[in-house]
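A quick aside before the break. I want you to see a complete sequence-to-structure record at least once, exactly as it would be stored in a machine-readable document. Don't worry about memorizing anything.
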Amino acid sequence: MAVRAVRGATQLEVDERDHMLERVSEMVLDAMSANGLEIDDFISVIFTATEDLHSEFPAYAARQLGFSDVPLICARELEIERSMKRVVRMMAHVETDLPRSDVTHVYLHGAAALRTDLARVRQSPNDA
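That is the input. The structure line, written in tokens, reads:
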């Protein structure tokens, strides 16, 4: 069993609490599905949010999914002039048998444009 990092990002349409919880839950669940993960596989998750998001802590969405014993933390994303607005990112540390090259990172909605260089990126079916 190896420790791997699974990345993800999603863009919100608006900074509203329910929308934040919906989009972050979608990102976490898609990352789990794409990589065959269960909550017990997670070691920790770091969430970041751009400076224009204030409605809720992204980690709260994971808590609602059952991540009660997984260490979670939220942080502010760097404020770079040309950066995408209303984005939540995550880096999850997980235990998995997947080789690093088979880990699927999940970039949803407008955030899919952030990592067009990755060959293994899962996009939301609604974005295709």
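Two observations worth writing down. The two ends are 34 Å apart (CA to CA). The longest strand covers residues 2-11. We'll return to this after the break.
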